[in-house]
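Notebook entry, structure prediction.
Reason for the run: the old model in the group folder had no record of what sequence produced it. Starting over properly, with the input documented here first.
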Amino acid sequence: MAADVGGVSATANPIANSSGSVTNQAIQVLQGPYITNTYGGGIQCQGATMNLTPYVTGGMAFKRPFEQYYDDPVYDVHDANDDGQIDNPGNILYYMPTRTNQSDSYNLSVGVSATWSRPLDKKLQDQCKEAAQASINQMVQLTANKRLDFELARLKNCGELKKKGIMFHPKSPYFSVCADVVLIQPAGVVVPHMHNLKPNTPKEEVKVEVKANGNAEDLGTFSIGNSKD
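New structure, fully documented this time:
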Protein backbone atom coordinates (compact mmCIF):
# COMPACT_ATOMS: atom_id res chain seq x y z
CA MET A 1 0.00 0.00 0.00
CA ALA A 2 2.93 2.33 0.44
CA ALA A 3 4.45 1.51 -2.95
CA ASP A 4 3.36 4.74 -4.65
CA VAL A 5 2.36 7.17 -1.94
CA GLY A 6 2.21 10.67 -3.41
CA GLY A 7 3.88 9.57 -6.60
CA VAL A 8 7.10 8.77 -4.77
CA SER A 9 8.39 5.25 -5.11
CA ALA A 10 8.68 3.68 -1.71
CA THR A 11 9.51 0.18 -2.79
CA ALA A 12 11.30 -1.66 -0.05
CA ASN A 13 14.88 -2.26 -1.09
CA PRO A 14 16.72 -3.59 1.95
CA ILE A 15 20.48 -3.65 1.62
CA ALA A 16 22.69 -5.41 4.09
CA ASN A 17 26.42 -4.66 4.08
CA SER A 18 28.89 -6.39 6.29
CA SER A 19 32.59 -5.87 6.47
CA GLY A 20 35.25 -7.09 8.75
CA SER A 21 38.95 -7.76 9.02
CA VAL A 22 40.91 -10.47 10.75
CA THR A 23 44.52 -10.06 11.85
CA ASN A 24 46.45 -13.11 12.83
CA GLN A 25 49.44 -12.51 15.08
CA ALA A 26 51.67 -15.27 16.31
CA ILE A 27 54.58 -15.33 18.74
CA GLN A 28 57.34 -17.72 17.76
CA VAL A 29 59.58 -19.05 20.53
CA LEU A 30 62.91 -20.37 19.32
CA GLN A 31 64.72 -22.63 21.75
CA GLY A 32 68.43 -22.06 21.79
CA PRO A 33 71.06 -24.72 22.46
CA TYR A 34 71.93 -25.81 25.96
CA ILE A 35 74.43 -23.69 27.84
CA THR A 36 77.78 -25.43 27.33
CA ASN A 37 80.77 -24.90 29.64
CA THR A 38 84.25 -25.96 28.49
CA TYR A 39 86.94 -26.80 31.05
CA GLY A 40 89.80 -27.88 28.81
CA GLY A 41 90.95 -31.35 27.95
CA GLY A 42 87.84 -31.94 25.90
CA ILE A 43 85.52 -31.65 28.94
CA GLN A 44 82.25 -29.96 28.09
CA CYS A 45 79.21 -29.92 30.33
CA GLN A 46 75.73 -28.79 29.39
CA GLY A 47 73.39 -27.32 31.92
CA ALA A 48 69.74 -26.46 32.09
CA THR A 49 68.60 -23.58 29.91
CA MET A 50 65.79 -21.11 30.42
CA ASN A 51 64.65 -18.86 27.61
CA LEU A 52 62.61 -15.74 28.28
CA THR A 53 61.14 -13.91 25.27
CA PRO A 54 59.28 -10.68 26.00
CA TYR A 55 57.17 -9.32 23.20
CA VAL A 56 54.99 -6.33 22.39
CA THR A 57 52.59 -6.30 19.47
CA GLY A 58 50.12 -3.70 18.37
CA GLY A 59 47.83 -2.75 15.54
CA MET A 60 45.72 0.15 14.33
CA ALA A 61 42.85 0.41 11.84
CA PHE A 62 41.41 3.68 10.53
CA LYS A 63 39.52 5.15 7.56
CA ARG A 64 40.19 8.33 5.68
CA PRO A 65 38.60 10.80 5.45
CA PHE A 66 37.35 10.57 8.95
CA GLU A 67 33.78 11.83 9.43
CA GLN A 68 31.93 11.59 12.69
CA TYR A 69 28.65 13.05 11.31
CA TYR A 70 26.94 13.54 7.99
CA ASP A 71 23.98 15.76 7.07
CA ASP A 72 20.82 13.76 6.45
CA PRO A 73 18.25 15.86 4.50
CA VAL A 74 14.69 16.02 5.76
CA TYR A 75 12.16 16.49 2.85
CA ASP A 76 8.85 18.39 2.86
CA VAL A 77 6.05 15.84 2.58
CA HIS A 78 3.24 18.27 3.45
CA ASP A 79 -0.08 17.69 1.64
CA ALA A 80 -2.30 20.65 2.45
CA ASN A 81 -5.36 19.73 0.35
CA ASP A 82 -5.21 16.01 1.11
CA ASP A 83 -5.23 15.11 -2.54
CA GLY A 84 -2.57 12.54 -2.07
CA GLN A 85 0.08 14.66 -3.76
CA ILE A 86 2.99 16.29 -1.94
CA ASP A 87 2.74 20.00 -2.29
CA ASN A 88 6.51 20.63 -2.64
CA PRO A 89 8.13 17.41 -3.71
CA GLY A 90 11.90 17.42 -3.34
CA ASN A 91 11.86 20.42 -1.08
CA ILE A 92 14.41 19.98 1.78
CA LEU A 93 13.28 21.45 5.01
CA TYR A 94 16.57 21.06 6.92
CA TYR A 95 19.48 18.78 7.43
CA MET A 96 19.77 16.51 10.44
CA PRO A 97 23.29 15.64 11.60
CA THR A 98 23.63 11.91 11.86
CA ARG A 99 26.48 9.99 13.42
CA THR A 100 28.50 7.85 11.06
CA ASN A 101 29.75 5.58 13.85
CA GLN A 102 33.11 5.76 12.18
CA SER A 103 35.98 5.23 14.59
CA ASP A 104 39.58 4.11 14.66
CA SER A 105 40.55 0.87 16.35
CA TYR A 106 43.75 0.12 18.22
CA ASN A 107 45.07 -2.98 19.93
CA LEU A 108 48.15 -3.65 22.03
CA SER A 109 49.45 -6.95 23.35
CA VAL A 110 52.26 -7.31 25.86
CA GLY A 111 53.55 -10.58 27.22
CA VAL A 112 56.44 -12.89 27.94
CA SER A 113 56.97 -16.41 26.69
CA ALA A 114 59.28 -18.75 28.59
CA THR A 115 60.74 -22.20 28.05
CA TRP A 116 62.72 -24.37 30.47
CA SER A 117 64.96 -27.11 29.14
CA ARG A 118 67.25 -29.46 31.02
CA PRO A 119 69.00 -32.74 30.20
CA LEU A 120 67.27 -35.89 31.37
CA ASP A 121 70.34 -38.00 32.22
CA LYS A 122 71.43 -36.66 35.60
CA LYS A 123 74.15 -39.30 36.06
CA LEU A 124 76.07 -38.13 33.03
CA GLN A 125 75.75 -34.55 34.24
CA ASP A 126 77.21 -35.47 37.63
CA GLN A 127 80.12 -37.33 36.02
CA CYS A 128 80.82 -34.38 33.78
CA LYS A 129 80.86 -32.07 36.80
CA GLU A 130 83.27 -34.39 38.63
CA ALA A 131 85.57 -34.45 35.60
CA ALA A 132 85.37 -30.66 35.38
CA GLN A 133 86.27 -30.31 39.07
CA ALA A 134 89.22 -32.69 38.64
CA SER A 135 90.42 -30.64 35.67
CA ILE A 136 90.16 -27.45 37.71
CA ASN A 137 92.12 -29.02 40.59
CA GLN A 138 94.82 -30.11 38.17
CA MET A 139 95.14 -26.62 36.71
CA VAL A 140 95.34 -25.13 40.22
CA GLN A 141 98.09 -27.60 41.16
CA LEU A 142 100.05 -26.86 37.99
CA THR A 143 99.80 -23.17 38.74
CA ALA A 144 101.08 -23.79 42.28
CA ASN A 145 104.00 -25.82 40.90
CA LYS A 146 104.91 -23.02 38.50
CA ARG A 147 104.79 -20.58 41.40
CA LEU A 148 107.04 -22.77 43.51
CA ASP A 149 109.58 -23.12 40.69
CA PHE A 150 109.61 -19.37 40.26
CA GLU A 151 110.14 -18.68 43.97
CA LEU A 152 112.94 -21.26 44.27
CA ALA A 153 114.71 -19.85 41.21
CA ARG A 154 114.40 -16.34 42.63
CA LEU A 155 115.75 -17.49 46.00
CA LYS A 156 118.72 -19.24 44.41
CA ASN A 157 119.71 -16.40 42.10
CA CYS A 158 119.25 -13.70 44.73
CA GLY A 159 121.28 -15.72 47.26
CA GLU A 160 124.17 -16.26 44.88
CA LEU A 161 124.22 -12.59 43.94
CA LYS A 162 124.15 -11.49 47.57
CA LYS A 163 127.12 -13.77 48.37
CA LYS A 164 129.02 -11.98 45.62
CA GLY A 165 128.01 -8.60 47.00
CA ILE A 166 125.70 -7.80 44.10
CA MET A 167 122.26 -6.35 44.80
CA PHE A 168 119.83 -3.73 43.55
CA HIS A 169 120.00 -0.20 44.84
CA PRO A 170 117.43 0.39 47.60
CA LYS A 171 115.79 3.09 45.49
CA SER A 172 115.56 0.83 42.44
CA PRO A 173 112.06 -0.37 41.50
CA TYR A 174 113.50 -3.90 41.35
CA PHE A 175 114.92 -3.83 44.89
CA SER A 176 111.87 -5.71 46.14
CA VAL A 177 112.72 -8.70 43.92
CA CYS A 178 115.36 -9.88 46.40
CA ALA A 179 114.27 -7.89 49.44
CA ASP A 180 112.94 -10.95 51.28
CA VAL A 181 115.98 -13.16 50.60
CA VAL A 182 118.15 -13.53 53.71
CA LEU A 183 121.77 -14.71 53.48
CA ILE A 184 123.05 -16.67 56.50
CA GLN A 185 126.46 -18.28 57.22
CA PRO A 186 126.96 -21.14 54.79
CA ALA A 187 128.31 -24.42 56.14
CA GLY A 188 132.15 -24.56 56.13
CA VAL A 189 132.56 -20.85 55.40
CA VAL A 190 133.96 -18.48 58.03
CA VAL A 191 132.20 -15.17 57.93
CA PRO A 192 134.49 -12.17 58.52
CA HIS A 193 134.30 -11.23 62.20
CA MET A 194 136.24 -9.48 65.01
CA HIS A 195 137.33 -10.45 68.55
CA ASN A 196 138.27 -8.26 71.51
CA LEU A 197 141.77 -9.31 72.67
CA LYS A 198 143.07 -8.57 76.19
CA PRO A 199 146.78 -7.63 76.70
CA ASN A 200 149.08 -10.38 78.03
CA THR A 201 149.84 -10.40 81.77
CA PRO A 202 153.56 -9.65 82.39
CA LYS A 203 155.59 -12.49 83.86
CA GLU A 204 156.76 -12.24 87.41
CA GLU A 205 160.35 -13.20 88.18
CA VAL A 206 160.97 -15.08 91.39
CA LYS A 207 164.47 -15.41 92.75
CA VAL A 208 165.21 -18.64 94.54
CA GLU A 209 168.39 -19.27 96.41
CA VAL A 210 169.75 -22.75 96.14
CA LYS A 211 172.38 -24.11 98.41
CA ALA A 212 175.53 -25.35 96.79
CA ASN A 213 175.77 -29.04 96.54
CA GLY A 214 178.76 -29.27 94.32
CA ASN A 215 176.88 -29.28 91.00
CA ALA A 216 176.95 -26.87 88.10
CA GLU A 217 173.64 -25.56 89.23
CA ASP A 218 175.26 -24.13 92.31
CA LEU A 219 176.95 -21.38 90.31
CA GLY A 220 174.38 -18.86 91.22
CA THR A 221 170.67 -18.09 91.20
CA PHE A 222 168.31 -18.72 88.33
CA SER A 223 164.85 -17.34 87.43
CA ILE A 224 161.64 -19.27 87.22
CA GLY A 225 158.96 -17.75 85.07
CA ASN A 226 155.53 -17.47 86.62
CA SER A 227 152.80 -17.10 84.06
CA LYS A 228 149.50 -18.56 83.10
CA ASP A 229 150.90 -20.24 80.06
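Summary: The first helix runs from residue 122 to 163.
The old model has been moved to the deprecated folder.
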